[in-house]
Structure formats: structure tokens, C-alpha cells
Specification:
Largest sheet: 5 strands, antiparallel
Distance between the termini: 42 Å
Structural class: mainly beta
Helix content: under 10%
Strand content: 35-45%
Number of strands: 27
Shape: elongated
Number of helices: 5
Length: about 450
């Protein structure tokens, strides 16, 4: 899975560059040298308070504020004063001894990409097992006012932002991301953690933070040579991506009795057609038609995937089969899609004894670059039919069946039923029933 991060870490120079400071000889040090006896504090804000888009992402219905987010803080290394320098060296914790973080002199040439890799390496250790993941030094809920950590010893910390309602293994994922290196682009796998609201997934990258630090100079660089004082209190913002979540709908059709002639079930299948419409925030976000075919009585089902989570769905049985009638509601509404789950819409039909001869096909239209090509999809082909997804096309209205009395319920003979889609090059489908003994156009 590839991701593009939409909210950058606005305090990147502060959180990342804080470690990439150059040691300075004592004579050039500020009037107040570093004091490693002073405790530090760290505040992680949920978003940039000056960014309207970020604020909306936090406050909107089913937004970040409802995602049960917390921050786990891991201590990667402690700090010791370097003699003759107004700076400190890092002493990695035993679990992190493989990381190249022994001295600032080892880190001063690192770029943002190097820091990102170091954060990834640290996170893979911290989240390498459930036991390791429980070895955080502090844990705070991420509220609208931020997550505040106090009385922190000097050193290097890893911040992992994730959903508090997700168990270990459920909040850890990997992604593929394209990065530039030495003038080329390559794809690397990265670890990230998630938190879920009912409608969205929020993905966070791990952060490395050094305490204490100094403020950036006019060029945005953090260096111990800067004339400003050491800062023992720091604020940062996580790097986050918001993506939609999806769920599935299962239409369950029960046929209590199958049509027979002289006690023998008729050989051709009986097809039932359903229209599915999903709305979200007053807009239609999903629309399609589906069919279920029977060759005997019993229960069959069809599952429609990739419907936006929290959408309200209405399912209507628009064609009841050639010799059947609905027993119970023909419309199921008030169905809410749950993310990563399947909700059912049940329907029941009974045989009415009319013995109409008809069956259903599905007309599929594919755009070959120049024109629409019609290809009927029979019940036997149904399992091979490509499924629709939101934004890839909206099927057209259902057609109908010509019954033995000549009544036409669908498109007239020779009438072309164009697909309806999101654009002129979008595949579409429509439902049509066909009377026995007539060719399929």
C-alpha cells in the first residue's frame, strides 16, 4: 500500500533537527550552559491550531477527536554532559544499542531522510513485540489541548501516536513510500501506527525528539552555537494521514418454494434484482444494481464491498422474479455501513403459481477507448464480473421482462440502454430480464 502524507510535521526542524546539533568549544558557549539536572516537558498538539483544514479534520463528525488517540513515549537514550562542550552525548538504552546515536558528532551531518530512517529503526525495536511495546516511559491521551509529558529526563525519545482502543498488532501497519536518494527515487517500506474513528483511519509516523534543545536560528537551523538559551520545554505536532474506511453489505434472499412443472423444477434460473444506494452527508456516494439467481428453493446471498463507512444504505428489490412475489418489505432502509464489517439486508419471496417463463441477465458496457461495447453477463458469468467501486462508474437503471401477454416492463426491442457513469469513459452496467425463447440482443 502506498500513502501520501497530507499533514506535514510543522515542527519538523524542532523535533528532528534538535538532535543534529554541532558541539561547540566551551569559550563560544552561551552565558548559561546546558543543565542536565533540569527536568524537561514535551507537549504534542493534535494539529496546527493556525491551520483551518487541520482544525476541521479534528473537529468534524467522526473526525480525529473521536478516534481515541493516545501517545506512547519511549526513552531511546539518556544524556551525559560532554566535557569542554556546551552539549551532551547520548547513551542508548540497552534495547537500542544498535542505533548510531552515541554522540552528536555522529548525528550532525544527518539530513531529514536520515532522521526519518532512524525513527523507523527505533520504532521497529520499540514495537517489535507486545512486551517491548509496553516498555514506554509515559503515556497520555491526545486531547484537543494536546498530550503533555512532564518531568522528563534529558535524552532522546520516540513518540508513537496510536488508537488506545486497538490492541497490539492491530494499530501497527506498514506502507510503501517513494523517497528520493542520491538523485534517484526508490520505494521503501515504512512502519506506521493508526487510530480509527467510525468513518476514517488516521495514520501516524513515529517521531524522534531530543530534550533539551535550542530554538532554530534565522535559517531554521538548530545548533548549540545559537546565542539563545537551552529550551527544556518543547511542542510538536504529529505527521498524520486521513483515509476513508469501508464496509460491506450482504443481500440475503430466501426463496421459500421453487417453481415446478408437473412436480419438476424448471431448468432455467430465476433472477431477482436489487438496487443499492448509499448516502453520506446528504450526497449519494455509492449506487449499483445486483442480482441473485436461484435454480432451487433455499437461501442465496450476494456481498457488495467497498461501501463508505457510516453511509446510510437503502436496498430495493426492483424485480421479484418471473413467478414470485415479495413476502415482507420490498425496501430495506436505515442500514448503516460499519467499517471492516458486513451488514445484512434480508429479503424473502414466495412462489405465486403464475408460471411465467423468464430469467435475468446483466448487461455490461465496457469502454474500449472509442466506443461502448455491450457484453451480457449471464448468471454463470456472474462470479467473473468485475465489481464496481465508488468513483469508477454508476450502473444504469434496471430493465425489465416481457411476459407471455406481451407487456413490456423494460427497454423496448432495439432500444440501446446507455451506461451512466462518472465520465464518458466509465464502465457501466444495467439489469435486464429476458423472456424465454427470445435471443439476447
Amino acid at each position: 500500500m502506498k500513502k501520501k502524507w497530507i499533514c506535514l510535521l510543522t515542527a519538523l526542524a524542532l523535533a528532528v533537527g534538535a538532535c543534529a546539533v554541532k558541539p561547540v568549544i566551551s569559550g563560544a558557549a552561551p552565558a548559561e550552559p546546558i543543565n542536565l539536572e533540569t527536568k524537561n516537558s514535551l507537549t504534542i498538539n493534535p494539529y496546527d491550531y493556525n491551520n483551518a483544514e487541520a482544525k476541521d479534520r479534528w473537529e468534524k463528525t467522526d473526525g480525529m477527536s473521536s478516534a481515541h488517540i493516545q501517545v506512547d513515549l519511549y526513552k531511546i537514550a539518556g544524556a551525559v554532559k560532554e566535557g569542554g562542550y556546551d552539549t551532551y552525548s547520548l547513551v542508548p538504552a540497552s534495547d537500542y544499542s544498535s542505533l548510531p546515536i552515541s554522540k552528536y558528532s555522529d548525528l550532525q551531518g544527518m539530513k531529514a531522510a536520515d532522521w526519518d530512517k532512524l525513527a523507523q529503526d527505533a520504532a521497529k525495536i520499540a514495537l517489535g513485540s507486545e512486551v517491548a511495546a509496553s516498555n514506554y516511559v509515559a503515556q497520555q491521551e491526545l486531547k484537543g489541548t494536546g498530550a503533555v509529558f512532564s518531568n522528563l529526563e534529558p535524552g532522546l525519545y520516540l513518540a508513537v501516536t496510536r488508537g488506545s482502543d486497538l490492541s497490539f498488532g492491530k494499530y501497527i501497519k506498514t506502507m510503501e513510500e517513494e523517497v528520493a536518494e542520491d538523485g534517484t527515487t526508490k520505494t521503501v517500506e515504512k512502519l506506521y501506527t493508526i487510530a480509527n474513528s467510525a468513518r476514517y483511519e488516521y495514520a501516524f509516523l513515529p517521531q524522534l525528539i531530543a530534550l533539551p534543545t535550542k530554538a532554530a536560528d534565522a535559517n531554521g537551523e538548530i545548533n548549540t552555537a545559537n546565542p539563545g538559551p537551552w529550551l527544556y520545554s518543547m511542542t510538536t505536532i504529529p505527521k498524520v494521514e486521513e483515509t476513508d474506511r469501508y464496509g460491506s453489505l450482504r443481500i440475503v434472499k430466501t426463496l421459500s418454494e421453487y417453481e415446478t412443472e408437473a412436480g419438476i423444477a424448471k431448468p432455467e434460473p430465476t433472477t431477482f434484482v436489487f438496487e443499492i444506494t448509499a448516502t453520506l452527508d446528504g450526497e449519494t456516494v455509492f449506487h449499483t444494481f445486483e442480482s441473485i439467481s436461484f435454480t432451487a428453493g433455499g437461501t442465496e446471498s450476494v456481498t457488495i464491498d467497498h461501501i463508505p463507512a457510516t453511509a446510510d444504505v437503502t436496498v430495493t428489490e426492483v424485480y421479484t422474479g418471473s413467478s414470485y412475489e415479495i413476502s415482507g418489505p420490498a425496501v430495506r432502509d436505515g442500514i448503516t455501513i460499519t467499517a471492516d464489517d458486513v451488514v445484512d439486508a434480508p429479503f424473502t419471496n414466495v412462489y405465486n403459481g403464475d408460471r411465467k417463463k423468464g430469467y435475468g441477465i446483466k448487461n455490461q458496457f465496457d469502454f474500449n477507448g472509442d466506443t461502448w461495447v455491450h457484453s451480457p453477463v449471464t448468471p454463470d458469468d456472474e462470479q467473473d464480473r468485475p465489481s464496481l467501486r465508488p468513483g469508477t462508474g454508476t450502473p444504469t437503471q434496471p430493465g425489465g421482462e416481457e411476459n407471455p401477454d406481451g407487456e413490456q416492463n423494460g427497454p423496448s426491442e432495439g432500444e440501446q440502454v446507455p451506461p451512466v457513469g462518472q465520465g464518458t469513459e466509465t464502465p457501466g452496467q444495467n439489469m435486464t430480464t429476458q423472456p424465454e425463447g427470445q435471443p439476447i440482443e
